[in-house]
Amino acid sequence: MTLAVMHVSARVIWMVAAISLALGVAVPAASAAAVPDVTPGVTRISGADRYEVSARVAQETYDPGVPVVFIATGVTFPDALSGAAAAGAEGGPVLLVKQSAIPASIATELNRLDPERIVVLGGTNSVSASVQAQLAAYTDGDVTRIGGANRYDVSAAISATTFPAGVATAYVATGSSFPDALSGAAPAGSSGAPVLLVKTTSIPASVAAELERLAPSDIVVLGGTASVSTGVETQLASYTDGSVERVAGANRYEVSAALSAESYAPGVPVAYIATGKNFPDALSGAPAAAAQDGPVLLVNQDTIPAGVAQELLRLRPATIVILGGSASVPSKVESDLVRYLRNAPSDVCGPTESDVMWSGTVTVSCFTFIGQQTKLTILSGTTILIEEDARLTIGGELVIPDGSSGIRVIGPGADGLPQYHYHFDVWGRAENIQGVAFTGVTVQFNSGVQSLSESTFEDSAVNYAGDGPMYSNRFVGTPLRLRHWDLANAPFDGPEANSFAGTEAERTVMLYATVLTEATLSPASGALFSGHVDVFGGTLNVSPGTQFVDVSIKAWGTLSILGTEDDPVVFEGTSSNSSSLPGQIELGGDVTIRHARFGQSTLPAVYNSSMSPASLTISDSYFEAPLVLRGFAGRPVIERNTFASVLAPDPQGGPNDTKPLPMQLQVDDLSGVVLDGGENSNVFEESPFTQVVNFNGEIAAESSMTLSPDTGAVYAGLIQVAGTLHAQPGTVFKGARIRVVELGSIDLAGSSSKPVVFTDYADDSIGEDSSRWDEFPVWEDNVLNERAWVDFDGLRSWSPHLFTVPSRISFTEFRNAAYAIELGQRSQVDIRDSRFTNVQTVVEAPLREWQPESMPESPWQHLPCLPPFSSVATIERTWFGDSGKAAIDGDPEALVLALGTGPLPQAYPDGALSSVQRAALEEQWNAIMSSTAALESGSSGQSSYLVPWDTYTCHTPSGTIQFPWLPVRITETLAPSF
Question: How far is residue 801's CA from residue 795's CA, in Å, rounded to a whole number?
C-alpha cells in the first residue's frame, strides 16, 4: 500500500531545534521536503531487487523537490554507512546504483523526486564517473562526489560536508561490518548527528581530524568490544568534554534493540524492520526511519529475536514497516509482528474521534461512527462481527495494509439476503479494500474508496461509488450498485472480470456509471445490467448474449452493441407500463447496433436529442419498442431490422394515450434507412395498428431512397427531397408531405392494380381506427387532417441553370385532403394516369411574397433578355372529382380554383402586361373556358392549355421587359384505368 504523504511534522522540526538550543550547537536544518505520516498496521516495502526496494522506500517517504539525494553503490556497504545518517539529517533519501549503471527503478524515482542537488558517496570504483555524469540529468543543481582513499576517509568527508562543529552527539561504529552503523543511522539522522567509522583497534587519521573539528558534546560507541575495542573507546574521550557511552549487545539484533531503547520513548509512530543478514534494505530505510522519528530494528531469517521482540512490546508502534521482500523478512515474521502493534478493542459501540487499530475478533454492537479526522486500521486475520441493528460507519479513513489477508466482515444477514439499511458504510477515504470476505451485510463504499479488489460478497448488497479500480471480485446472491465512476475499472469480461451468481435479481448490477476510457459488458460475468450508463468520450463494447433490464445508455462516445443471430444482445423492461427506462439508448457519438432485441418498453428504444452523432448503424435487430431519431445530424444506416409495432403507452400522457409508432426519424439524410422491400430492407410485422414510419428529414443531394409497401409500413411526416425519392406500386402515404427542393426529384410510380396513395391522416379506409391517431405530430406546426401534399420548391439557387429536374407522378391517388400539389418556381412535374378525389386544391401555384426583380443582382440579369425558366405541371389522363366524378362539374372556375390562380384580372394587375401580351393571354383563357365540356366528357382531343400565374421582369439597357410565368400545362383528362 502506498503510504500517506504529509510534510515533515512540526514536532520533528521542534525536537531538532530544541536539542540545538539546549546544547548550544548548530545542526542541519530540518528538510523542507515532505515525508509521510505512515499508515497504521503492518506494511511491507519490497521490490524485485535491492535497487527497486531503495526506490520504493524513497517513493513512499518523500515528496518531489527533496533538497538532496545521496547516491551509493548497492554492492558494498561502507560508503553508505555514514551517508545514511547524513541523508536523515538533511531530509533526503539514499538511493542505490550499480557501479556503471543507474537501474531503471532508480532513474524513475530520481525523475519523480526532482532533487535540488545530488551527492555521490565513494570513489569511482564504487560509482563510476559515467554514472555521475548521467545523474546531472535528474537535477538542476550540482552533482558532487564525496570520496576518499578508503571507507574511513569517506566517512570523515561525509561528516565534514554535512555537520557543523559543536554537534551534540557523534556516533562511532566499526567500518568492518554494517549492522551497528545501520542501527545507529536512524537516531543519528533524527538528532542531526554523524556516524563515523573506525577500525576495531584504532582511529584512522582522517576520522580523528574530523572528531577534532566536530568537538561533540558526547560520543556514542555502537557495538561491543569485538567491533570497537576498549582502547579506541579510551582514545575517543580526548575528542569530547562530555561522556563516551557504549551501546552494545550479545549480537547485532541486541544492539539494534538496545540503541532503540536508548533513543526512543514508547508510542513511536513507526518502527522499521530489516534483515540483519544483509545491508541494502536497512541502508535505504534508515533515512526514512529518521524522517519518521522511529528506529530500525533487525530480525533474522525465521524469527523475531527476543531482544527485538521485547523492544517492540515496549515501543508499541502504530505502524511497523518491513523493508524488503519475503526472502529477506519472511511472511511468518510479518504475521508475528501484528501482535506488537497497539491493541484494538474486541467490542466497540458508539463514536470515536481517535485513531484505532483492529485485530483479532471485533464485535460491533451498536451504531459505531469513526470520526471524519480519524483512521481505522484493520489488520490481517481480523474478523468484524456486526450485530443485528448495528452499523459501522467510517467517516474518516479506512486502512487495510498491503498484503493483508483473512479479513472478514460478517453481518446479521448471513443466513439470507440482508436488511436494506447499511451495515458497513465507508463515507471517507480508503486506498485499498482487497481480499475481504463480506457475508450477510449491506455495504456502501463512497467516492473516497480508491480500489476494491479480490474480495468476496455473499448474501450482501453492495453500493460502490469508489473512484478507483474494482476487479476480480466474486458476488454470490448479491445485488450490486455502481455509481459515478469509470466502468473500465469494473471489468465484466476478461481475466480480471468480476463474477456473479444467484437468481436474476441477485445477479442484476444497477449502473449509475460512466465510461471514460473503454469498458466491455459481457454475459461471461453472469451479471444482468440495469440503471444508466453515460459513455463520455470512451468506448463501451457489449458482447453477444448480454442482457439489460430497465437500462438506459447515453452514448456520447463510442457504443458498440454486437450480438449474433443465435446470441443477440437483449434489452427488456420489467413492465410495459414501467416508469423506468427499459432499453433506451440516447445517441451522441459513434453507435453500432447489430443483432439486438428490444422488448416492449415505455420509452423509445433508441433516440437522440440534437446531439449530432457522428455515425449510427442499426442492423439485424428486433424492435418491440419504437425507434426514434430526432435532430440526427448525419446519415444513419438502418437496415435488415424487424419492427413489431406494438402498442406503446405515451410516457408523457396517461395509460390510454397511445402512439403505435415503430419508427420516427428526424435526420439529415434519410437515404440510409432501407425501406425498399429488398433483402436489406427493414420490415414491419402485422399488428392491430398500422405500422407507421414518421419522417421528418431529408434525402440529401445525390442520395436516393426507395419506399415500398413490401415492408408493411405506411409513411407519414415530412420528407424533404434534395436527391431522389422512389415510391413503388402500392406505397401508402398518410398525412405525409413530400417537399422537393434544389435539384431533387420524385418518382411516384404506382400501377393500375397497385396505385401509390396519398391521403389525409384521418382517412380510416387504410385499415386502422382513426381515433388512435389524435394528437399525433405529423410534421412541423402539428398540422393534422389537412394535407396529402407534394410541394415542389424547385431550384433554390438563382444562378442561370438552363435545365430543370423532372419529377414523375403516375398511377397515384390523392384523396381526402385540402391540398395535393404545390408548384414552386422552375419545377417540372409530370402527372399521368392519376386521380384526385375529395381534394380541395389539386395544383396550387401561389404568388410569391417576393418577385424576381427584388432579388439581389445576379449574372443572368446581364444576359440577353430571355423568357423565365418557368415551372410546368403536365397533367394527363387524370381524374379530378369525388368518387370518380369529374371535378369541374360544368363550372370553369372550379378548374381555376383547383390551380390556385383565380380569375385572370387577379393574376395580372393592371399595367403588368402590355396590351399585346394581355390580348394573347385572354385568347388562351377564352380557349380554356370554352373547352370545359371537353375536359368534363373526357374527350380524346389533343388540346393543351397553358395557365400563367406570375410575371418575370428582365432588365435590359434599353428598358424593362416582363414575361408571364407559364406554370401549368393541362392536356386531355381521361379516367385512369385503376
Answer: 9
Q: Using the 8-state DSSP alphabet, how is residue 28 labeled?
A: P
Rounded to whole angstroms, the Cα distance separating 637 from 667 reads 11
Is residue 78 scored above 70 in pLDDT? yes
Q: Is the pLDDT of residue 13 over 50?
A: no
Domain boundaries along the sequence of the chain: 6-339, 344-478, 839-970
| CA 21/CA 427 separation, integer angstroms | 45
**601, pLDDT greater than 90:** no
pLDDT reading at 26 higher than 50: no
Q: How far apart are the first and last CA of the chain?
A: 84
pLDDT tens-digit series, residues 843-870: 665 433 333 444 444 443 444 444 444 4
Phi, psi at residue 162, to the nearest 5°?
Answer: -115, -40
- Give the whole-angstrom CA distance, residue 20 versus residue 216: 12
Give the C-alpha distances (Å, rounded to integers) separating 253 from 42, 233, 248, 274: 20, 22, 10, 10
Contacting residues for 21 by C-beta, under 8 A, at least 6 apart: none
Residue at grid coordinates 539514499: 94
CA distances from 243 to 236, 246, 414, 685, 763 (A): 10, 10, 65, 102, 115
Please check whether residue 399 is in contact with residue 391, taking contact to mean a CB–CB distance below 8 angstroms: no
Q: What is the pLDDT of residue 849?
A: 34
Q: Give the pLDDT band of residue 564 (cuts 50, 70, 90).
A: very high
> What type of residue is 437?
A
- State which H helix or E strand residue 161 sits in: helix 151-162
**The three cell numbers locating residue 817:** 385532403
Q: With bands split at pLDDT 50, 70 and 90, how would you rate the model's confidence at 903?
A: very low
Half-sphere exposure of 438 (CA within 13 A, CB side): 30
For residue 180, the 8-state DSSP code is H
pTM higher than 0.70:
no
From the list 337, 374, 336, 335, the residue with the least C-alpha distance to 357 is 374
In tens, the pLDDT along 95-135 reads 999 999 999 999 999 999 999 999 999 999 999 999 999 99
pLDDT(525) > 90? yes
Kindly tell me if the per-residue pLDDT of 964 is higher than 50. Answer: no
Helix (H, G, I), strand (E, B) or coil at 372: coil
Q: What is the dihedral of CA 72, 73, 79, 80, to 10 degrees?
A: 50
> Please, are residues 85 and 129 in contact by the beta-carbon 8 Å criterion?
no
Which residue from 628, 574, 566 is spatially nearest to 597, judged by alpha carbons?
Answer: 566
- Amino acid letter for position 970: I
pLDDT digits (tens, 9 = 90+) for 707-758: 999 998 988 888 888 899 999 999 998 878 888 887 788 999 999 889 998 8
DSSP E strands, 882-977: 945-947, 951-956, 959-964, 968-970
Taking the CA of residue 953 as centre, how many other CA atoms within 13 Å lie in the half-sphere pointing to its CB? 12
- Dihedral angle at the C-alpha atoms of 573, 577, 578, 583, nearest 10 degrees? 30
For the stretch 341-349, contacts whose Cβ atoms lie closer than 8 Å and that sit 24 or more positions apart, written own/partner, are: 341/40, 341/41, 341/42, 341/316, 341/317, 341/379, 342/40, 342/316, 342/317, 342/318, 344/379, 344/382, 349/390
Residues whose CB is less than 8 angstroms from the CB of residue 243 and which lie 6 or more positions away in sequence, other chains included = 218, 219
Residue 591's alpha-carbon distances to 328, 562, 601, 633, 672, in angstroms, are 54, 11, 21, 13, 14
Q: What is the CA radius of gyration of the chain?
A: 45
Which residue in the block uniquely carries the three cell numbers 444477514?
413
Distance in angstroms (rounded) separating the CA atoms of residues 580 and 552: 9
> Residues 493, 498, 504, 505: is their CA dihedral positive or negative?
negative
Judged by average pLDDT, the poorest of 344-348, 503-507, 573-577 is: 573-577
Contact 380, 331 (CB under 8 A): no
